[in-house]
Amino acid sequence: MRLLIDAGNTRLKWRLDQQGDVVTGGACLFDSRQWLDELSPFGARIESISVSTVISEARRSVLVSQLVDLSGAPISFYWAESLRGGLRNAYSDVEKMGADRWHAMYAAWQQGLDGFAVVDAGSAITVDYVTGDGDHLGGYILPGKQMMLRSLQQDAARIGFESIDAGAGDPGRSTTECVQHGLVWLWEGLIRHLVADCERYRLQRIVCTGGDAVALLAAGLPGQHEPDLVLSGLAAIDSEAAGS
Ligand SMILES: Nc1ncnc2c1ncn2[C@@H]1O[C@H](COP(=O)(O)OP(=O)(O)OP(=O)(O)O)[C@@H](O)[C@H]1O
Ligand SMILES: CC(C)(CO)[C@@H](O)C(=O)NCCC(=O)O
Ligand SMILES: [K+]
């Protein structure tokens, strides 16, 4: 069995597969031990572990020791690359790109020959554009929903608000409404930009992943939801590495 892990700044996603068939999988907060509890019955049968991660080196060494305790299987970390299977990274310094972005792009690239945008609405929101020829045009990094709300709450003395979910983007008439509606207004702007860029760069599809993907789609993002995009890209790259 092969264990695949996508370790983000907020959550850890895992998938256990055997010859391409999913045995089990899930997602939990990075610092919770839920994933270890769910995987421990399989520990002895795990043959290899592959990881895509954007966490700090300190947290990565914690992750490695947890994985070593779980299973004696070899651990491989996969990072962003310049080129793979016709997909070309726009970064000149590819080591600086988050592995999750590259793995998500690679999964979407393997789905078809048309141009696409990948939106990963996680701790941070990333947007990446790829043409039908496999050229990554570049992308954007924005604060994610929780990050944005947390910074408003922590870094501004007089911004206090309670619930954060609203469907409206009209001008707010209280602090809570101004923050709630501000987020909707910002996301509507993001969606408008994305749609205009897809037209401009002739990208036919928008693929959306991450913890806030459903909310972004509900806010009007015209895309397809692929919750496991990063894990799928990681799985494909790991299979290629095993076959070579
Ligand atoms: N059950 C949940 N627990 C935590 N966050 C959630 C949950 N459901 C939705 N979210 C939202 O998902 C976001 C985190 O998304 P995700 O798990 O994709 O991030 P991540 O992969 O850890 O982050 P990144 O890759 O950007 O470091 C949070 O900002 C939050 O708004
Ligand atoms: C932007 C995040 C946090 C999104 O998970 C991640 O992809 C990352 O840490 N990236 C490094 C910077 C970059 O991609 O240019
Ligand atoms: K992510």
Ligands (ions, cofactors included): adenosine-5'-triphosphate, pantothenoic acid, potassium ion
Strand content: 25-35%
Bin the helical content: 25-40%
By DSSP, the count of extended strands is 12
Cofactor: NH4(+); K(+)
Enzyme class: transferase
Keywords: ATP-binding, Coenzyme A biosynthesis, Cytoplasm, Kinase, Metal-binding, Nucleotide-binding, Potassium, Transferase
Binding site for ATP: 6-13, 123
Plain-language structure description:
InterPro entries: ATPase_NBD, Type_III_PanK. The chain has 244 residues and is α/β, with parallel strands linked by helices. The protein has seven helices and twelve strands. The chain has helices at 34-39, 57-70, 99-111, 145-155, 175-200, 213-218, 229-243, and strands at 2-7, 11-18, 21-29, 48-53, 75-77, 83-84, 87-88, 116-121, 124-130, 136-143, 205-209, 224-225. The strands form three sheets. It has a five-stranded mixed beta sheet with strand order 3-2-1-4-5, sandwiched between helices. It starts with a strand and ends with a helix. The mean pLDDT is 95. The structure holds adenosine-5'-triphosphate, pantothenoic acid and potassium ion (K). Residues 8-11, 29, 54, 100, 122-124, 144-146, 210-212 line the site of adenosine-5'-triphosphate.
